[in-house]
């Protein structure tokens, strides 16, 4: 899965997700790791929506971290080489298709005005 056409913020979320996967001993980056990356970013439209919906971010993060607790003998030592789960790859394909449909040149964490456009 290529993330080079993601905006810098979206790339940060993916980096945070990979770090979370390594930290928790996972063999793949999952949607829970992506959620952890979004929480760690703590900015963007998703954050505003969560706050307006009254989501208790701390409770959400705590529940999400419980899902991330993995014990395994095999651990990844670098976030750069950990693969993405099939669910994350599917989400990426849907996001790529959505960006093309909306004539966006990059995948963003928000739809707010941005100068971060890069070719798809």
Keywords:
single chain, 120 residues, mainly alpha, Double Clp-N motif, 0% strand, disordered C terminus
Describe this structure in words.
- Helix 1 packs across helix 2 (31-41) and helix 2 packs antiparallel against helix 4.
- This protein has one domain (8-101): Double Clp-N motif (Orthogonal Bundle), CATH 1.10.1780.
- It has five helices and no strands.
- It has helices at 8-23, 31-41, 45-52, 57-68, 86-101.
- With 120 residues, it is mainly α.
Structural class of the helix and strand makeup? mainly alpha
Helix proportion of residues, in percent?
A: 40-55%
For the record, what CATH class applies?
Answer: Mainly Alpha
Q: How would you state the average pLDDT, rounded?
A: 76
Q: Any idea what the radius of gyration is?
A: 15 Å
Number of helices: 5
Shape: globular
CATH architectural group: Orthogonal Bundle
CATH topology: Double Clp-N motif
Report low-confidence residues grouped into runs of 5 or more: 110-120
Order of helices and strands: HHHHH
Measured between the Cα atoms of the first and last residue, the distance is: 13 Å
- Count up the domains: 1
CATH superfamily: Clp, N-terminal domain
Number of strands: 0
Main beta sheet, described? none
Percent strand equals under 5%
């Amino acid at each position: 899965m290529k993330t080079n056409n993601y905006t810098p913020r979206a790339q940060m979320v993916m980096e945070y997700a990979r770090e979370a996967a390594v930290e928790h001993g996972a063999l793949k980056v999952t949607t829970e790791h992506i959620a952890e990356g979004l929480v760690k970013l703590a900015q963007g439209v998703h954050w505003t929506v969560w706050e307006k919906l009254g989501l208790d971010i701390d409770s959400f993060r705590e529940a999400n971290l419980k899902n991330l607790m993995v014990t395994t003998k095999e651990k990844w030592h670098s976030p750069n080489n950990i693969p993405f789960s099939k669910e994350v790859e599917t989400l990426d394909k849907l996001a790529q298709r959505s960006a093309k449909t909306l004539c966006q040149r990059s995948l963003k964490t928000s739809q707010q005005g941005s100068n971060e456009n890069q070719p798809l």
